[in-house]
Design goal:
22% of the residues lie in helices and 30% in strands. It is built from four helices and eleven strands; from the N terminus they run E-E-E-E-E-H-E-H-E-H-E-E-E-E-H. It is an alpha+beta fold. The chain has a five-stranded mixed β-sheet. A four-stranded antiparallel β-sheet has the order 1-2-8-9. Strands 3-4 form a two-stranded antiparallel sheet.
Length: 175
């Protein structure tokens, strides 16, 4: 079975790109995925079962917008209830993620790598075919594993809507 391709779903500096995987919407069941932690152990959606998950998806931590997005959610994480897990997922190698988090004092988020299988990218419809990077996106997943909020940022070089994301986390169904 071939995977869905969404041509022109996002742009990079105005140039259309193709995303692999289905577009997810609020109300959908969150798909399973397998990514790597900094110690190379496998992490799945099940690892944070029962929590609300804010998943911040970035192309690469070593780019200006991704860096700012990650720093912003790291800062916001300390203001969120204890039952909210803030995950940042990129295609960066776990070693690069560890270096980035250490250098930027990003200690309130969990950085996870989709480099090995692109499991998250395909399942969440954020894998950029032409670049084998993840597009910028936000997912808020409730403790019931239902997606409560989704934002696929249309232009990869732009920031997500931080205010809407944080509002989604404050919605009664999120906590």
């Amino acid at each position: 079975m071939s995977e869905a391709e969404r041509k022109g779903a996002v742009t990079f500096k105005g140039n259309p790109l193709t995303l692999i995987g289905q577009e997810l919407k609020a109300g959908d069941k969150a798909p399973a995925f397998r990514v790597l932690a900094k110690d190379l152990s496998e992490v799945t959606l099940e690892n944070s079962k029962g929590k609300t998950r804010l998943i911040s998806v970035v192309p690469s931590l070593d780019t200006p917008v991704c860096e700012l997005q990650t720093q912003r959610f790291n800062e916001e994480a300390s203001k969120l209830p204890a039952n909210v897990a803030v995950l940042t997922i990129s295609m960066d190698l776990p070693f690069a993620q560890t270096r980035f988090c250490s250098a930027n004092k990003a200690d309130k988020i969990t950085a996870l790598s989709d480099h090995r299988e692109a499991s998250f990218g395909k399942a969440y419809g954020v894998l950029i075919k032409e670049l084998r990077l993840l597009t910028r996106a936000i997912f808020v997943i409730g403790p019931d594993d239902k997606i409560q909020y989704v934002e696929y940022v249309k232009e990869v070089t732009q920031h997500p809507d931080y205010d809407r994301t944080l509002q989604a986390l404050k919605a009664p169904s999120a906590v």
